[in-house]
Amino acid sequence: MKSKIWSQFVVKNVKQLSIASEIRLTPLPSDAMSANRLICRHFCDKKPFDDNYVKPLSGVKRFISRQFFRFIESYERVLEKRFPKTFKIYRVFTIGAKDFYGDVVQYLQISKQLFDGRRVHELTYNELMVYMRTPKDMARVGPVLLVSALPFANYVVFPLAYWFPKQLLSSHFWTLEQRQTFQTMHHKKQLYHFRPVFRCIQSRLPFVTSEDNLREKCRLVFAALGSGTHPSVDHILDMKPVFRDKPYGMQYLKSKHLTELCRMYGLNAFPLGKRSRLINHIGFVRELDLAIDRTGIQSLNLDQIKTACFMRGLNPIELSKEEMIAWLQTWIGIAHKVDSNY
């Protein structure tokens, strides 16, 4: 039975193959062949790709595209006019996130360059500022971004971050007014710790060596500071030896003195690592001073000059640009005459 079915299947397929071969071998009429040649010649002579396929917009398409572009340009203004508060939040987070991302990328690039052998004195002022601030900014903004990535969490996190920018966001997300306000608040906290630091300095005056009249020089400078007057640059530089060795060298400072210095500079005052944190901070500030000295203060914009004054303990709010520059030049002149051992 199986052999019979198989034989019928073979016969059937052989018949189909013979019919197909007869169809293939049957010559076409002359008219059909000429028509076939014309069709083949038409498609073979035509190039499959041509530069003419990519053309500039013209006519109606060009008009529609221009109108659409103008609509997109005006759409942000419409949103800003109809929803001012919402649009302000949108601008704060979009621009801030872009600036923050750019600084993180630059921070990683600088770190790689330093690892590959680039010297610190080859960094620009802006690169040093990014390398100094980005770790703190990442520690502050990172948790906010991670929590906002959770489902529906952004509806809660972003409004909270907008209403508490000082606690939850970095300076990338602040307006110029907020930046100035927060810097002033930080400066007031610094002032609170100035007096305890000064008392620690005064308490160590008896331990200053009397050689080269150093103790008397320190006493005169401390008396001037206590009366609210600024000592001259020469008087400050005369005290260099006592700030390199005992009693005011960094390795000789007492724990209370280190704690007050950390709080004054806005650093973590946890007992472990206070000295190293202070050394790193002071080292960064000195490198910033030298970077400004290399490029000139005129290379900084007004906001950068104000930030530099705040970082060094001067409130520049009521000062003119010329006064700020003069004060910074005096500061940098001192930094230029001391080495990293002070």
From TrEMBL:
Location in or out of the cell: Mitochondrion inner membrane
Letm1 RBD domain sequence ranges: 190-342
Keyword line: Membrane, Mitochondrion, Mitochondrion inner membrane, Transmembrane, Transmembrane helix
The keyword Transmembrane helix appears for this protein: yes
Signal sequence residues: none
Gene Ontology molecular functions: ribosome binding
Superkingdom of origin: Eukaryota
Statement: the UniProt record of this protein carries the keyword Transmembrane helix: yes
One annotated GO biological process: intracellular monoatomic cation homeostasis
Gene Ontology CC terms: mitochondrial inner membrane
Residue ranges crossing the lipid bilayer per the database entry: 141-164
Membrane topology qualifier: Single-pass membrane protein
Main location: mitochondrion
Protein name according to UniProt: Letm1 RBD domain-containing protein
Lineage: Eukaryota, Metazoa, Ecdysozoa, Arthropoda, Chelicerata
